[in-house]
Amino acid sequence: MVTLICMVGNDYQRIITGVDYWRDRESIEALYILFDHKKDKYGFASQKNAEELNVSLARDAVKPKAIGYDPQNFGDVFCTFYGIFTREAEKYKRQILVDATSTTKEAYGATITVALMFENVRVYIVPPNERGWYVPSPDDKGFKEWFLKTRSIGGLPPQEIYLPGQRLKQPDKNEMIILRKLHEHQDYSNTVTSIIRWCKADAKDPVVKNRFSRRIRRLEEKGLVEKRATKQGKEVRLTNFGKILSEATKRSRELQQESKQQKTQLPSKRGKSKR
Q1: Which of 136, 211, 224, 274 could join 140 via S-S bond, C-beta 3.0 to 4.6 A?
Q2: What angle (nearest 5°) sits at the alpha carbon of residue 245, between those of residues 235 and 101?
């Protein structure tokens, strides 16, 4: 059972694309449409799109629930999502998907923050078929004027994106080795035994097997790997987040090695100056 939440701004068709995508893959039990309730140009576009989406998305006996909020107010966005998440995730035990395609930076930051406080909440975007269609070409006569105007627009005081105090705990050294070995083997292992062997440990020793099982369980709790029982044993795969973290640590090690090599290189000898 899945609850789908769409933040509605200037985009219309991409939101429909996202909803259709998930309807083909999940059982949608509830659908929320969050629109900008302000009486300005942004609110006008959001409300117009929300009205039409409310009609076009009312299928499969699931009637959308429209909720007004201020997507430029971090606190209002946070409170809106906290209420929905508490109801849908904790009370009804549903998976939650949030469409952040068409919203503000403030709303995006607040959404990610509150999503980190609940289990089974995922956030997605629907990329456009054509990027930057509203940006004039450098060959156009009006490009220079547009560019100068765009780059000279000032800003208000910075608004911090508040994050929960309890953050994702980084994998320890031994857990990171497991992630690295999985990444080196196409992000997958058909058994835990294979992982133990990749780490050059004794796969026949019960103590070692228990130790690796605990490490993999901790990685699973952190959302970095997922396990699945098979006839051969327990299949272990990196999650998408696990793949990204593994690649990031790989690049970090490479940069550190390059830095060390540069430091160990002797400076070139300078020729004697002529008098």
Answers
A1: 136
A2: 105
Q: Is 200 left (phi over 0), alpha (psi -120 to 50) or beta?
A: left
Q: Does residue 103 form part of some domain?
A: yes
Q: What are phi and psi of 259, to 5 degrees?
A: -65, -40
Segment (H or E) for 124: strand 121-124
Give the Cα separation of 255 and 215 in Å (integer).
27
Nearest to 35 by CA among 17, 57, 20: 57
Please list the residues that pair with 228 across neighbouring strands.
235
Do 153 and 220 touch, CB atoms closer than 8 A? no
Same domain, 12 and 118: yes
Closest among 14, 55, 47 to 31, alpha carbons compared: 55
- Over residues 133-146, the pLDDT tens digits come to 788 899 998 999 98
* Last residue of one domain, picked from the residues 94, 128, 162: 128
What is the per-residue pLDDT across 51-60, written as a single tens digit (0 to 9) for each? Answer: 999 999 987 6
